[in-house]
Amino acid sequence: MRIKAVLFDFDGTLTEPGTLDYSAIRDAIGCSQGSPILECIARMRSRARRAKALRILDEIEWKASRLSRPNAGAEELLRLLLSRNLKIGIISRNSLRSIRRALRNFRHIRASDFSVIMTRDDPQLPKPSPEGILAAAVKMGVPAEQVLVVGDFVFDIEAGQNAGAHTAFLTNGSASPAFRHPPDFTTRNLEELQDIVRLHSPLRNGKLPNELLARFLGECVDPSLLIPPGVGEDVAAIQLDGEDVLVLKSDPVTFATDAIGYYAVVVNVNDLATSGAAPRWLLTTLLFPAETSAAQAGQVMKELREVALQHGLLLCGGHTEITDAVTRPVVVAQAAGTVPRTNLVDKRGMRGGNKILLTKGMAVEGTCIIAREFPQKLRRMGMSAREIEKCRRFLYDPGISILKEARIAAR
């Protein structure tokens, strides 16, 4: 499931429930209790009677819209969706005029924030027909199967399902009704919907958000794990038989393709070394894009083997593949080392007053990466070729490896 847009019902979903008294509306326009109001009006034989009923309905909705208030968590949810570049829209059986008036009671959200507002004033049939949702999806430029429809009434869910969209039913703390086909999600309030959106909307480039990572890693529990997986943890430590501890590290390299083998080895060795472990074994997974030559792949493998030997590692296995799943080389390295348990350095034991040792200088690795990845941009910004080359050489001088320093610190 992937969510790129969210369509909300309005009354009772984005606004507090109870502002509109539907029983009183039915009495005022002459509809039997329990019958859908718009369908009841459509069945009236006289055009004049239908027009009068709509005028009464419009007037009641207009008065209610002036008194309506945002539902709890509505504005926070809408702002979250906008911050994640998700499209938001409204799909309602109410009039456009009343919705625009009710939105004036929101403090941080305006009608202009919505990519689309579909109401009974549009030519599409109202919910539970899927026509409005399908039309809204087209206007938002999102396939219906990537839309989440949120509402507090059965018609909202049926319309979403009929359109092929995902659905979330909002109970507002009440009991959920019986559905012929249950919604994908049922939430008590709009705050709970935030979590659904976070889990099913596209992630931004970069690392997985900490709160999601912590949720998944919290399930990895075993008594043999001396250092378990966690947010900010660079290694895992496993108790072996006897006094030795096996320290494991894995890191991908997706940049600096002219020295990708060097980076892959050193960044993994560094984390082993800072845990007190002696690096011993290395496995690599190499993914090369289509059209990679044998010479290019061989150069990376040669560099990996040589740098591994320089750092005391045995390249003992892995996987190599040419695939259209990547557009540039990707090296995923897994390094392992051992350390006596008494010498294992666990950063969770850091305390106030401990000394932090910095070697070589600040921003050495970052400066080197920028110089190697964006030399043309740096030239346009005014750096000379000599300055860029000096920054490129930071990889080796002063260098990014801290293995020697870590061994000294561990004595």
Descriptive report:
It is a single chain. The chain is an alpha/beta fold and 411 residues long. It has two domains: 5-19 and 68-200, Rossmann fold, CATH 3.40.50.1000; 222-410, 2-Layer Sandwich (60s Ribosomal Protein L30, Chain: A). The protein is built from 16 helices and twelve strands. The protein has helices at residues 10-14, 22-29, 37-42, 47-67, 74-83, 96-103, 131-140, 154-163, 190-200, 210-217, 260-274, 294-310, 364-373, 375-380, 385-392, 403-410, and strands at residues 5-8, 87-91, 116-118, 147-151, 166-170, 185-187, 225-227, 236-239, 244-253, 278-288, 314-322, 330-340. Strands 3-2-1-4-5-6 form a six-stranded parallel beta sheet, sandwiched between helices. The chain starts with a strand and ends with a helix.
Structural class: alpha/beta
CATH topology of the largest domain: 60s Ribosomal Protein L30, Chain: A
What is the count of β-strands?
Answer: 12
What count of helical segments does DSSP give? 16
The helix/strand series, from N terminus to C terminus, equals EHHHHHEHEHEHEEHHEEEHEHEEHHHH
In percent, how helical is the residue content?
25-40%
List the strand order in the largest sheet. Answer: 3-2-1-4-5-6
CATH top-level class of the largest domain? Alpha Beta
> Low-confidence segments, ≥5 residues, pLDDT <50?
none
CATH superfamily of the largest domain, called what? PurM-like, N-terminal domain
Shape designation: elongated
Which range does the strand content fall in? 15-25%
Radius of gyration: 30 Å
- Give a quick account of the main beta sheet: strands, pairing sense, barrel closure: 6 strands, parallel
Question: Average pLDDT value?
Answer: 94
Number of domains: 2
